[in-house]
Amino acid sequence: MKALGNKGEDLAVIFLEKKGYKIIAKNYKNYVGEIDIIARDGETTVFIEVKTRANDSFGYPFEAVHSRKRLKLRNLALLYMKKQGEEIPIRFDVLSIMYTDNGQKQIEHIIDAFEV
Asked: What pLDDT score was predicted for residue 47?
């Protein structure tokens, strides 16, 4: 399952770079947990959660970003910003990737997916 997640995160980086995002970090970790991707979209720092599924038997990928996960991402982002030592505009995006049976992929980019 980790291989599918890594494949999704690699695809997400390519997708975001094509949209003009500047990737700052991938798999940023601190003692609270991990943020899949931190990127810049203009002046905004974007914390991006990537969810990848091989099928929809467990629901759509973005449905896995529940309230506990959002709270964890918020805390990770706060620690990241504190470490940067500056106030910066931020937002949280979710990149939902679904692989179909015939090997195709569906990517849904939910911009400003939630507020904290």
From this structure: 95
